[in-house]
């Protein structure tokens, strides 16, 4: 997999914010996830940011990170891992993704790429002269039976020839892309054979099922009652046990009643106590790290891996403004901050103290020396 990096600084906008409609959508999407799991919304939020601006900018990544309370690096990892996210500007009217996997290649996808090179630009991801069109080669898009195919935005265009792709590109370039019907570009319905069905053409004969009404069967006459049984009065008491002088069914009934009484008197199993919720530690706790007034030039705490804009803001509210403060945290203080942030051990996992010591000692150069990479 090729290395994916953000666009150069000259292409990056200064800020990003969801528009009003997308803000409402984003809040509703985040609410779909259980408490403490809102970070699961990172992919849909990044995708909505891309749909709004056409590509994923650094400012959009920072905005999503702040909205979900995630470290910037975590969102950057997602954006750079999934190739569905465009990290550089793409065509404003069409970004054409040409499938180059085996079925499409066997059916002529290389010719489609030549069309893109001729009509748009020789190089993938490069914009045409007007900045309206761009293209790239991608992996399987899931419509192999209709190969070759391309995807433009969210729509698939299948069963393509070079000539048909040229017509589609011209339509999008002219701002008439909505007039092109997505799907197969030949005479077929979805993935059915070209020209119509070739099998199951005969008339289907009805098959009898168990659901159909059945003929009624006349009821059999009732069995005759023996004369002796018929002569006995209906209110005659049941036969009694001569030894007990009680009805023969009494012992069984008494046993059943005793069993029921025993069960009613048995104590019910107690419910297991619900697990107690973890409460945020008190601000008056003795293990809370000592805060300081904000210095004239506070340290950039976001250089510590695991600290994003939101977490940095919370730390500042607690009076934490410098690397030296974090570098001096003892175990009890780390546990207090970890509990206050509901990090579940993340401070030690990310080793904030070691990172802070390196940054406090020699800034970025010392950090690179210790960790072998730049901070963040």
TrEMBL record:
The keyword Chaperone does not apply. GO terms for molecular function: 2 iron, 2 sulfur cluster binding; active transmembrane transporter activity; inorganic cation transmembrane transporter activity; metal ion binding; monoatomic cation transmembrane transporter activity; NADH dehydrogenase activity. One of its GO terms (cellular component) is membrane protein complex. InterPro entries: NuoE-like (IPR002023), NuoE_dom (IPR042128), NuoE_N (IPR041921), Thioredoxin-like_sf (IPR036249). This is NADH dehydrogenase subunit E. Keywords: 2Fe-2S, Iron, Iron-sulfur, Metal-binding, NAD, Translocase. It comes from the Bacteria. It catalyses: a quinone + NADH + 5 H(+)(in) = a quinol + NAD(+) + 4 H(+)(out). It comes from Neorhizobium alkalisoli. Its cofactor is [2Fe-2S] cluster. The keyword Ligase does not apply. Belongs to the complex I 24 kDa subunit family. It holds the Pfam family 2Fe-2S_thioredx. GO terms for biological process: inorganic cation transmembrane transport. Residues 231-244, 277-297 have a biased composition (Basic and acidic residues).
């Amino acid at each position: 997999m090729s290395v994916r990096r953000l666009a150069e600084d000259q292409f990056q906008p200064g800020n990003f914010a969801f528009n009003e409609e997308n803000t409402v959508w984003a809040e509703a999407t985040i609410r779909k996830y259980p408490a403490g799991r809102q970070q699961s919304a990172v992919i849909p939020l990044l995708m909505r940011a891309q749909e709004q601006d056409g590509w994923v900018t650094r400012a959009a990544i920072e905005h999503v990170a702040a909205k979900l309370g995630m470290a910037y690096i975590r969102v950057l990892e997602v954006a750079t891992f999934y190739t569905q996210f465009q990290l550089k500007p793409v065509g404003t009217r069409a970004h054409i993704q040409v499938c180059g996997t085996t079925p499409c290649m066997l059916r002529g996808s290389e010719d489609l790429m030549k069309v893109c090179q001729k009509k748009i630009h020789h190089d993938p991801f490069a914009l045409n002269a007007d900045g309206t069109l761009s293209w790239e080669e991608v992996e399987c898009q899931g419509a192999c039976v209709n190969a070759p195919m391309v995807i433009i935005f969210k729509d698939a265009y299948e069963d393509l020839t070079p000539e048909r792709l040229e017509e589609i590109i011209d339509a999008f370039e002219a701002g008439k892309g909505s007039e092109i019907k997505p799907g197969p570009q030949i005479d077929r319905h979805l993935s059915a054979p070209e020209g119509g069905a070739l099998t199951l053409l005969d008339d289907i004969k009805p098959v009898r099922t168990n659901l159909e009404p059945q003929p009624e069967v006349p009821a059999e006459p009732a069995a005759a009652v023996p004369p002796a049984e018929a002569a006995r009065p209906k209110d005659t008491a049941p036969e009694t046990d001569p030894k007990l002088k009680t009805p023969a069914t009494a012992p069984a009934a008494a046993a059943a009643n005793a069993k029921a009484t025993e069960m009613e008197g048995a104590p019910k199993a107690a419910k297991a106590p619900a697990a107690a919720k973890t409460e945020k530690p008190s601000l008056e706790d003795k293990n809370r790290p000592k805060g300081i007034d904000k210095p004239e030039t506070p340290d950039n705490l976001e250089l510590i891996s695991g600290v994003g804009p939101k977490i940095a803001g919370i730390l500042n509210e607690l009076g934490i403004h410098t690397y030296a403060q974090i570098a001096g945290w003892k175990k009890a203080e780390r546990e207090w901050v970890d509990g206050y942030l509901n990090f579940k051990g993340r401070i030690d996992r990310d080793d904030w103290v070691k990172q802070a010591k390196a940054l406090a000692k020699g800034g970025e150069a010392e950090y690179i020396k210790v960790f072998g990479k730049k901070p963040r």
